[in-house]
Design goal:
The protein has 139 residues and is mostly helical. The chain has seven helices and two strands. The two termini are 29 Å apart. Bound molecules: zinc ion. Zinc ion is lined by residues 6, 8-9, 11, 19, 50-51, 111.
């Protein structure tokens, strides 16, 4: 029944979908779901941690510090934006050159496919929070 499997996070789809496609679909749900919109940072950051190939180590370290503070200490989003923006200014590279990227498969308890849940928009914000907590524990 599986049609595609993600080479990075191991998510399995029964349709022709990639995790990148699914991220776009979930972000589109935010327009109709204020609770989900509030978790936009967790959605995008969680996606990035499960698909880290394109990012430099420095970018991932600064994002992880904001992510864990948000989850553990409810760090304000304005403060996160300030810090991540600062870290990404100037000469700091966020993306690795394409030639240095080599995806490797890692298994997780939850992936973005579980948040998408076959296209089930209802309850997505709660699933994003559960997804983020599982990454917080497993990374
Ligand atoms: Zn994936």
């Amino acid at each position: 029944m599986a049609i595609s499997q993600c080479p990075e996070c191991g998510a399995i789809y029964s349709q022709e979908l990639s995790c990148w496609d699914v991220l776009g679909l979930i972000i589109a749900w935010e327009y109709a779901d204020a609770d989900l919109l509030r978790e936009h940072f967790l959605t995008v950051a969680s996606y990035n941690f499960q698909h880290p190939t394109q990012f430099t180590d420095t970018a991932l370290v600064s994002l992880w510090s904001a992510y864990t503070e948000y989850l553990d200490n409810q760090l304000a989003l304005a403060e996160i934006r300030r810090r991540v923006g600062q870290a990404h200014q100037g000469a700091t590279r966020v993306l690795k050159p394409a030639a240095e990227r080599s995806p490797s498969l890692r298994r997780w308890t939850m992936t973005i496919a579980d948040v998408y849940d076959g296209g089930q928009a209802e309850g997505a914000a709660e699933r994003v929070r559960a997804w983020a907590r599982s990454i917080r524990d497993e990374r």
